Amino acid sequence: MVLWWAELRGPVGQVVESSYWAWTYASERLRSWAQNRGVGGCGVYVASFPASHLHKPDLEPPPRDMAEAHQAVGFVPSLTPDGADPELAGQVLRNIYLSGLWSWKRHLSRFRNDFLSGVLPASPFSWLFLFSAIQLAWFLQLDPSLGLMEKIKELLPDWAGQHHRLRGVLAAALFASCLWGALIFTLHVALRLLLSYHGWLLEPHGAMSSATKTWLALVRIFSGRRPMLFSYQRSLPRQPVPSVQDTVRKVSDWWEEFVYLRSRSPLMVNSNYYLTDFLYVTPTPLQAARAGNAVHALLLYRHRLQRQEISPTLLMGMRPLCSAQYERIFNTTRVPGVQKDHLRHLRDSQHVAVLHRGRFFRVGTHSPHGLLPPRALEQQFQRILDDPSPACPHEEHLAALTAAPRGLWAQLRQTLKTRAAHALEAVEGAAFFVSLDPEPAGLTREDPAGSLDAYAHALLAGRGHDRWFDKSFTLIIFSNGKLGLSVEHSWADCPISGHMWEFTLATECFQLGYSADGHCKGCPAPALPPPQRLQWDLPDQVHLSISLALRGAKALSGNIDCHIFPFSHFGKSFIRHCHLSSDSFVQMALQLAHFRDRGQFCLTYESAMTRLFLEGRTETVRSCTREACSFVRAMEDKEKTDPQCLVLFRAAVDKHQALLKAAMSGQGVDRHLFALYVVSRFLHMQSPFLAQVYSEQWQLSTSQIPVQQMHLFDVHNYPDYVSSGGGFGPADAHGYGVSYIFMGDDAITFHISSKKSSTKTDSRRLGRHIEAALLDVASLFQAGQRMQRRFSGSAEEDSGHRCGFLSSKTLNFKTPTDSEPFQ
């Protein structure tokens, strides 16, 4: 008799099912093998093999989401002259026990979190209080149920007249549970009605009416204490659909939405965006150490996410935003399709996929005891860096397929799925993708501006073949310890990945920290098995496609012009001193800068979140309004005085604020127009109006990256250790992509992109116009006139004044503190 035991990698909770399937299939395979080779007797042959080798046409394969659980079982063979006797090693039994225990813990923890978030604003203690109160009333011969408990007792078994008191207790418990559930439902309905009020958005900036104060007090009462991440999901209202009449009254131009999953264009530059490291400091120059701490911090965030220990985002400290987008940060891949892509999300994954010098590795992130410590992860990454083996033919450029048009990649992926299923599954089923770049990046003394631009370009596009653009995000660590993030856009918007990135930077630098020699704290784990090198069986027909995809990716990468521009003359504190919205201030400055750059106005896109509603994402704010145009023309008219320009500026800001609030409260027009366009195409209806507005392009695409967790950073004592935002590609061939982030209170960092093939755009030139425009707008206020004079005086002495942000702290590789985390 011959038996095999298969090692399957699948999500937690499916160990028994997958093992049974593997055992059944393996037994069939072994019987066939034994018959063909004449093997008999009672010997047992045992092997461990990956799930990708288990597929068989006449058997049902395991579900696709079974792909990435940790190793649960195995056998140790012992051969004898009479055959083979199995020895079930103690370590194997221990692994089986720990795997099952961990699986049950995960299920129980998930059930507990879902229950606690579902009953908010109530709690299990409130049920106990209600039950105790009913029991007390019953003891005092009072019936708060008005006879219902007696009817419940009649429905319960009488147990031959015994246990009369127990029946009373059970009846009270059932009544208390029903009453408790009804109260929770009532609270959820009341909270949903309260959250449907958006009058607070329409009030003047800095003012709050009595109605809004009353609303805030009621929301506070009905929101409960200590909410979990998904606690408010059942209470958020669904986004309303504006009436057609309201939409027609507002419409002037067309908004072109990125149709993510139906877009057939390459993801690189067109769909992905990037997030940067600290600009001026690097906690350690050791690449493997930075990777170890960063990966550990990211997985700590995932652990908190799974346990719903991340607090929901609250506007005004009380109004919750939808948290649905957080669910697919990890274990997610955008799978290409011929007509449409789809997102594949696994419940869990116990490894990361790593790319270094064209070679792919699978690095386990967990042991039977839990998450690997940073020093152990550093050791695994260092093993990859020290591995001298070369990349196989065409393996080095394989990732360029993810930067190819989606239809082409979808067809080639079917071939890889057949010939290299195990390697493809290891990449697509990873928690996330890690790229260990062999080149340094970041700010340098020799060329401050140029080095930052190259850093942004490396994060957004790289070399076209060193990122797996399908993954939800790729962690990029450069050879000098600098890091960054490349994020695929379809699964969520920037504030979600930005929230994760803030936690990662703060945790890996301030809480985990580094030793004096730059390594991760702790001790190595030499007993860990080395990372698994992935093998790709690439047929000849794929080689030509890889070469074509690489050529297209390099052309797309070489055409993108990136520019990081730190503005340090003033920041949010000055704008707040002027009693203005910081976002509106910058948006009007961008209109002035773009007009000076191109000599004309253009259709301008600014993203606004709609997460006030269930599963809300974004809406468009059309920043180029008539009021903004009047302000810009006045600024360029030498006959206009500063007071006249200031009046027009405030009118433009007020209009922008009104549009922003309308978009956030579900009263925007562009998502509505897009829905009308989709319906017209589905019904084969010709609409000259929709056809006209659909053809218009967004030549200026803008977005603010919010800082959501300032408590994680000590801006006053360590101003250089703050998030510096990120950027994205332009939406139009002759346009700009501009994102900005307020770094603390006294600085703004801009990320500008354009295409080199356009003769109308230049990212650095627009950066110069943005700086001048910000100072010119600030000079309309008395406090800003001094800055304008200082800027004018220094510009003649240093034509490269914007590079003057480089200081002696640039090459600092020291963590500010290794003992006290920022809270």
Automatic annotation (TrEMBL):
Check the record and name the Gene3D superfamilies matching this protein: 6.10.250.1760, Chloramphenicol acetyltransferase-like domain (3.30.559.10), Choline/Carnitine o-acyltransferase, domain 2 (3.30.559.70)
Spell out the InterPro entries in the cross-references: Carn_acyl_trans (IPR000542), CAT-like_dom_sf (IPR023213), Cho/carn_acyl_trans (IPR039551), Cho/carn_acyl_trans_2 (IPR042231), CPT_N (IPR032476)
List UniProt keywords, sorted A-Z: Acyltransferase, Cell projection, Endoplasmic reticulum, Fatty acid metabolism, Hydrolase, Lipid metabolism, Membrane, Transferase, Transmembrane, Transmembrane helix
Topology versus the membrane: Multi-pass membrane protein
PROSITE patterns, A to Z: ACYLTRANSF_C_2
Q: Which GO terms describe its molecular function?
A: carnitine O-palmitoyltransferase activity; palmitoyl-(protein) hydrolase activity
One GO cellular-component annotation of the UniProt record comes to: axon
Q: Which GO terms describe its biological process?
A: carnitine metabolic process; fatty acid metabolic process
The record places domain Choline/carnitine acyltransferase at: 251-771
The organism's place on the tree of life at top rank: Eukaryota
Which top class of enzyme applies to this chain? hydrolase
Start and end residues of each Carnitine O-palmitoyltransferase N-terminal domain: 66-112
What Pfam families does this protein map onto?
Answer: Carn_acyltransf, CPT_N
List the EC numbers from the record. Answer: 3.1.2.22
Q: What is its main location?
A: other
Q: What SUPFAM superfamilies does the entry give? A: CoA-dependent acyltransferases
Give the family, as the similarity comment puts it.
Belongs to the carnitine/choline acetyltransferase family.
PANTHER family given in the database record? CARNITINE O-ACYLTRANSFERASE, CARNITINE O-PALMITOYLTRANSFERASE 1, BRAIN ISOFORM
**Name assigned to this protein:** Palmitoyl thioesterase CPT1C
Which species is this record about? Heterocephalus glaber
